[in-house]
Amino acid sequence: MNSNNTLSLLLGAVLGGVATYYAIKHQDDIIDKIHELEDNLNIDHNELINNAKGKLDQLTSNLQSTIGRYTHSDNTAEKADEIAAITEELNRLREEVQALKA
Question: What is the rounded distance in angstroms from the CA atom of residue 25 to the CA atom of residue 20?
C-alpha cells in the first residue's frame, strides 16, 4: 500500500515536470494563441450600449403608448389586458438585457 502511494507521487511529479517543461518551452506560442483568442472574441462594447439604448427607447415608447391607452380607456377588462401586456413586455426585455450582460 505504501509503495503504491510512493509510485503515485512519483508519477504525479514526473507528469507535472513534463507539463511544466512543455509550458516553459512553448510559452511564446501559448501566449500568442491566447492573444489571438482575445482578438477573435473582442466584443464591441459600443455596439452593446447602442443595442441597450435602442431597447430602452422601444420600451419607453411602448410604455407611453400603453399608458396613454390605459388612461383614456374606461373598460376594466381592457385595462387588465394592457397591464398583462406591459408585464409581458417588461419580462421579455429583462431577459434580453440579461442575455446582453452575459
Answer: 8
Residue for grid cell 442575455: 99
SS3 74: coil
Cβ-proximal residues to 59 (8 Å cutoff; 6+ apart), any chain: 89, 90, 93
CA distance 78 to 2: 79
Pull the grid cell for residue 31. 501566449
The Cα 1–Cα 42 span in angstroms is: 52
Mean pLDDT of the chain: 80
For the chain, how big is the Rg over CA atoms in Å? 29
Indicate whether this model's pTM tops 0.85: no
For residue 93, give the nearest of 51, 31, 64, 34 by alpha carbon. Answer: 51
Give dist(CA 97, CA 102) in Å, integer: 9
